[in-house]
């Protein structure tokens, strides 16, 4: 039985690692040495299968893809309609509801219970019209008159 000797220099460590790496590469080469050959055969087989398909099979494949795309579009349209209806019924934001996954009706009820209508901005005296800003405030109006500004 050989006795384990500690590695003391960088050269010893490099030699041990190099030997281990070579051993792993040999093992991989034995196990997967024919990978490129098998991959080439598989590609050739796939090309032969595609070439042997009849025109009917190609048309059927194309139709299946088109049906899948149509179904996806129908599902999307139905979800958009459900979102619009649930948003209207529950008074919630349709954009926010559309971003949620899961059952649309349950999500709409949840948003409504959480105050989904959104917080209204506080009402301002000028009702948001910047041309009227400050003209309804008597103090500002008095200051403008006192300093001669309109």
Short description:
By secondary structure, this protein is an all-alpha fold.
What does this structure look like?
The protein is an all-alpha fold. Among the domains are: 11-52; 66-116. The protein has helices at 10-32, 35-52, 55-90, 94-99, 104-113, 138-146. The longest helix has 36 residues, at 55-90. The N and C termini lie far apart (106 Å). The model has no long low-confidence stretch (mean pLDDT 82). This is DUF4355 domain-containing protein. Keywords: Coiled coil. Residues 7-90 form a coiled coil.
Order of helices and strands: HHHHHH
Q: Report the average pLDDT across residues.
A: 82
Helix amount: 55-70%
Low-confidence segments, ≥5 residues, pLDDT <50? none
Radius of gyration: 37 Å
Approximate strand percentage? under 5%
The count of DSSP E runs of length 2 or more, i.e. the number of strands, is 0
Taking the alpha carbons of the first and last residues, their distance comes to 106 Å
The largest sheet is:
none
Class based on secondary structure composition and strand pairing: mainly alpha
Number of helical segments with 4 or more residues: 6
Biased composition (Basic and acidic residues): 124-134
Keywords: Coiled coil
Coiled coil: 7-90
Protein name: DUF4355 domain-containing protein
């Amino acid at each position: 039985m050989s006795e384990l000797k500690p590695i003391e220099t960088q050269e010893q460590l490099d030699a041990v690692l190099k030997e281990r790496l070579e051993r792993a590469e040999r093992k991989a080469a034995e196990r997967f040495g024919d990978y490129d050959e098998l991959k080439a055969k598989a590609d050739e087989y796939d090309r032969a299968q595609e070439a042997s398909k009849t025109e009917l099979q190609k048309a059927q494949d194309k139709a299946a893809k088109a049906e899948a795309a149509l179904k996806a579009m129908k599902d999307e349209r139905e979800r958009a309609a459900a979102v619009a209806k649930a948003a209207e019924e529950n008074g919630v934001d349709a954009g926010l509801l559309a971003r949620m996954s899961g059952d649309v009706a349950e999500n709409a009820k949840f948003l409504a219970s959480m105050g989904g209508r959104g917080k209204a901005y506080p009402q301002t005296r000028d009702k948001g019209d910047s041309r009227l800003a400050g003209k309804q405030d008597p103090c500002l109006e008095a200051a403008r008159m006192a300093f001669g500004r309109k």
